[in-house]
């Protein structure tokens, strides 16, 4: 079986084949080694590693991993499953072994015993709070004035992901309890589309929509995740079962992941083409110019940079914020602390 098998699973329900893989199947293909039944002289082949990814930038290095031949260094096949976001990945727990995902990884660690094994992207940028050009909040000069304008208003965002985190941090920075507003949960693309259709008073748009021309939709970015005191590292996690039963395979995949992000971080033109190709393969359109904007704003983490990361620092602080807002409970916070797989991270980097 080719290591480039890629099934596209949307909203954890609708499944179709990813054209870039050159196959047409109605569901993720069954694992196959391409060999006959094992004999005493032929050991049984390993099961494919099922890797969940998002149809967005945070997982876009999957395109380079496929195209570069990096998967040929592994002694097992990889079955890719693509989702529309981090929350659907969590909802499909049991269908994958490792996930290259985003902020929703905090719930995977807190509630599902997954293990943090790597950070692939510095994702702080690209989380923008927007208002329509005629909104009085753009002329407000104090937080008190902004707070008075925001209370009771509708804010479009995506729950369980970075947009939700950004919306809450923004409101709290103004002294507004999020419960005083109507936060509406929409999929990432539908936040932008609903906003353009005239819905909502404010919206948190994320990559790639945050990089679209705001003048064309008569909107203004007036706050960002960074400006309201937040930060984000996109995260790669594995399941408890994969950690316990396929430790060496997870280490090997993390090495492949960092070889990819390292190469992409060093060649902007090549990276832009690869990211754009990922969107196309996922049935979307992202121009080379927009891909470069994403790469500049949300840089992929090189091997050298990865070696400066103390795995767990970001995720523990991120989880502490979620716990303080009762988005996860105290048990979940403790679970996050206990599910930082620094051993996988260290062993992977030691081999690079």
What's the topology here?
Layout: E1 6-10, E2 14-17, E3 49-54, H1 61-68, E4 78-83, H2 86-91, E5 98-100, H3 105-112, E6 115-122, E7 127-132, H4 143-150, E8 154-157, H5 162-173, E9 182-185, H6 188-196, E10 202-206, E11 219-224, E12 233-238, H7 240-245, H8 247-266, H9 268-281, H10 288-297, H11 303-306, H12 313-324, H13 330-338, H14 342-350
Helix pairs in contact: 1-8, 1-9, 3-13, 8-9, 8-14, 9-10, 12-13
Structure description:
This protein is of the alpha/beta class and 352 residues long. Helices cover 38% and strands 18% of the residues. It has 14 helices and 12 strands. The strands form 2 sheets. Strands 2-1-4-3-5-12-6 form a 7-stranded mixed β-sheet, sandwiched between helices. The protein has a 5-stranded mixed β-sheet with strand order 9-8-10-7-11, with helices on both faces. A hairpin with a 3-residue loop joins strand 1 and strand 2. Helix 8 packs across helix 14, helix 9 crosses helix 10 and helix 12 runs antiparallel to helix 13. The longest helix is centred in the last third of the chain and has 20 residues. It is globular. The N terminus is likely disordered.
Provide a compact summary of the structure.
This protein is α/β, with parallel strands linked by helices and 352 residues long.
């Amino acid at each position: 079986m080719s290591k480039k098998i890629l099934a596209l699973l949307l909203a954890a329900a609708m499944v179709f084949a990813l054209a870039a893989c050159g196959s047409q199947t109605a569901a993720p293909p069954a694992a196959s080694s391409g060999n006959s039944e094992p004999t005493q002289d032929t050991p049984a082949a390993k099961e494919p590693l099922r890797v969940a990814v998002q149809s967005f930038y945070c997982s876009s290095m999957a395109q380079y991993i496929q195209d570069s031949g990096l998967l040929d260094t592994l002694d097992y096949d990889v079955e890719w499953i693509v989702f529309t976001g981090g929350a659907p990945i969590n909802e499909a727990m049991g269908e994958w072994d490792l996930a290259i995902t985003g902020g929703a990884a905090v719930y995977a660690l807190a509630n599902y015993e997954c293990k943090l094994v790597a950070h692939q992207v510095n994702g702080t940028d690209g989380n923008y709070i927007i208002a329509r050009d005629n909104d009085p909040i753009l002329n407000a000069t104090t937080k008190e004035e902004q707070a008075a304008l925001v209370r009771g208003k509708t804010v479009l965002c995506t729950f369980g992901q970075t947009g939700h985190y950004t919306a809450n941090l923004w409101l709290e920075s103004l002294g507004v309890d999020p419960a005083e507003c109507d936060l509406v949960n929409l999929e990432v693309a539908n936040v932008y589309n609903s906003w353009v259709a005239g819905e909502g008073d404010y919206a948190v748009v994320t990559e790639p929509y945050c990089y679209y021309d705001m003048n064309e939709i008569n909107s203004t970015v007036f706050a960002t995740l960074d400006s309201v005191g937040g930060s984000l590292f996109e995260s790669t996690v594995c399941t408890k079962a994969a950690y316990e039963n396929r430790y060496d395979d997870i280490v090997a995949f993390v090495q492949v992941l960092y070889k990819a992000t390292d190469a992409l971080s060093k060649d902007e033109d090549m990276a832009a083409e690869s990211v754009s190709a990922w969107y196309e393969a996922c049935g979307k359109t992202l121009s080379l110019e927009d891909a470069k904007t994403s790469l500049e704003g949300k840089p992929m983490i090189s091997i050298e940079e990865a070696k400066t990361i103390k795995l767990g620092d970001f995720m523990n602080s991120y989880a502490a914020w979620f716990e303080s807002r009762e988005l996860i409970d105290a048990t979940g916070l403790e679970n996050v602390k206990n599910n930082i797989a620094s051993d996988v991270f260290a062993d992977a980097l030691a081999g690079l």
